[in-house]
Amino acid sequence: MPKTLNSFDTHYSLNNVSKKNPIVFIHGVGLNQEIWKPQTDFFKNYTTLTYDLLGHGKTPLNKSKVNFNDFSRQLLNLIDELKFEKIHLIGFSLGALIARDFASKHNERLCSLIIHGSIYKRTEDQKRIVINRWNVAKLNRPASKKAALRRWLTEDFTKKNPEIYKRIYSILEKNDHKNFLKSYETFVHYEDDDNMIKKISVNTLITTGE
After folding, report:
1. Residues 41, 43: Cα–Cα separation, whole Å
2. Which of 7, 27, 25 is nearest to 15 (CA)?
3. Measuring CA to CA, which of 102, 129, 131, 132 is 20 to 30 A from 5?
4. Residue 32 φ/ψ, nearest 5 degrees
């Protein structure tokens, strides 16, 4: 898929098979659009769109802090510029929270919504755990990246697919650490808003795993 840049400096990849509504994928914190290659390969006969979030991959982040309004506006600007009236939206982790936020504000732009590996009303213990992870991530050591991969991939999967493990680790290693922490902080301190969720009326699939 050709990679290009929109007028708002968002790096994206578009497989424009037809003028039909595209499948749009939003990656998680510390990753980039390359994480979705297995999915875009699988859906090669469909129009698909992946992109680097603000401060990730090749998309810059020129703010001291970032919030979900920034992330939703980034996606809106991208699909507006590409002239897509409606999209099928899929988000993972931080991307799932962005997808939720976008859907609550621009529900009319969605055909469907898939939220994968999201959070909902963390307990106090869960909040402490994620804050501890954030503090460890600040040190920018391999242990933090390896711990993330252990959460995402089972030991059995890693043994059978070492090349995938290496590829994802490489993405984490290459990210802009300062910008990564800005996005991670947004994820760490996220508070669920049921009123926002009630604004989402599009067909939605929510998935997760142990």
Report:
1. 5
2. 25
3. 102
4. -150, -175
**Residue indicated by tokens 């098979």:** 17
Look at strands 87-92 and 48-51 and give their pairing.
unpaired
pLDDT at 1: 65
Contacts of residue 33, Cβ cutoff 8 Å, sequence gap at least 6: 11, 12, 13, 25, 27, 50, 51, 52, 57
Per-position DSSP letters for 105-164, written without gaps between them: H-GGGEEEEEEES---S--HHHHHHHHHHHHHHTT--HHHHHHHHHHHS-HHHHHH-HHH
Strand partners, 205: 114
Pairing of strands 48-51, 11-15: antiparallel
CA distances from residue 86 to 10, 28, 38, 49, 74 in whole angstroms, order as listed: 19, 22, 23, 12, 16
Q: Which of 135, 110, 120 is closest to 200 using CA atoms?
A: 110
